[in-house]
TrEMBL record:
The name this protein goes by in its record: DUF3043 domain-containing protein
Keyword entries, A-Z: Membrane, Transmembrane, Transmembrane helix
Low complexity bias spans: 11-20
Start and end residues of each stretch annotated as Disordered: 1-68
InterPro entries, per the entry: DUF3043 (IPR021403)
Transmembrane stretches, start-end: 96-116, 122-145
Membrane as UniProt keyword: yes
Taxonomic lineage: Bacteria, Bacillati, Actinomycetota, Actinomycetes, Micrococcales
Residue spans of biased composition, Basic and acidic residues class: 53-68
């Protein structure tokens, strides 16, 4: 009734494909396999990642701060970089500056005013001393800035950079322990230029 099916002829194995340069030479991956490989969780372990990042950032900040305190040019702001600025800092740090005593003096005066109450005689005695020390401190900073400019011209053969006077004066008004970068020279040591 029904015709018998003829057996399918045996297929010969396909000849091996020779790898061609520039060709893909591999089968195209299935779409679902590709999508499965690309699938990642939307929310990962953010706590572990952020703790890692925070720890690394904290270590980098500590290293940068330490370098800045040491006066390492890589970590200094552009305002403090270079051999001329280091020379200026050394000029300030190698001597006693009257300006560095202003803040402690102000604290002593404030305490005396608080303890003395509204005693007009105490104010008449204290205020001229305070203003006198301030005037001498400003004069000392101005003279140091002039000398620093002259020394920069002598040592480096170039004019002192713009803002040198303010840079030297502000550093001389700070207490030694609060200066950034920290002093790299002891009081009384000779000041010599550090060229790279």
């Amino acid at each position: 009734m029904f015709p018998r099916k003829k057996p399918a002829p045996e297929l010969e194995p396909a000849p091996a494909v020779e790898a061609r340069p520039g060709a893909k030479n591999r089968p195209t991956p299935r779409r679902r396999d590709q999508e499965a490989a690309n699938r990642r969780p939307l929310v990962g372990d953010s706590k572990a990642v952020s703790a890692d990042v925070k720890a690394r950032q904290k270590a980098e900040r500590a290293k940068a701060r330490e370098g800045m305190m040491r006066g390492d040019d890589r970590y200094l702001t552009s305002r403090d970089q270079g051999p001329v600025k280091r020379f200026l800092r050394d000029m300030v740090d190698a001597r006693w500056n009257i300006g560095e005593f202003l803040l402690p003096l102000m604290l002593v005066v404030l305490m005396l005013m608080l303890l003395g109450g509204n005693n007009p005689q105490a104010q008449i005695l204290i205020l001229p001393v305070v203003y006198g020390v301030m005037a001498v401190g400003v004069m000392d900073a101005w003279l140091l800035a002039r000398r620093a400019k002259r020394r920069v011209a002598e040592e480096f053969g170039t004019e002192a950079p713009k803002g040198t006077s303010m840079y030297v004066a502000l550093r001389s008004m700070q207490m030694r322990m609060s200066r950034v970068p920290r002093p790299q020279i002891k009081r009384g040591d000779p000041v010599v230029p550090h060229r790279h």
